[in-house]
Structure formats: structure tokens, C-alpha cells
Sequence to fold (62 residues):
Amino acid sequence: MNKDQVKGVAEKAKGKVNEVIGRATGDTKQEVKGDVQQAIGEVQKKYGDAKEAIKKQAKKAH
Fold:
């Protein structure tokens, strides 16, 4: 697991917390912030996944 994958998962987790707190307190702004954080985290994780896949393919080629 590379740093982008770790950061992505962490950002998704923070986003989920913000979403749940926002929903529980009726704070739409915080809920939306959580949704955005989750989306950003997912993109970062997928970027990390792609880097790992490329790295594995490069190792297979050699």
C-alpha cells in the first residue's frame, strides 16, 4: 500500500465522520463537506491503486 492509498482511505474516513455528524445534527454544510471529502479520498485512493498496478507491471516486465 502506498502513501496515496493510505491518504485516500484516511480522507474517506474523515469524510464519513463529517457526513454522519452533519446528518445527525442537521448541519447540511458539514454533511456536504463530508461527501466531498469522501469523493476526494476515493480519487486519491484510486490514483494510488493505479500507481501500484503500474509498479507491479513494471516488475513483471523485468
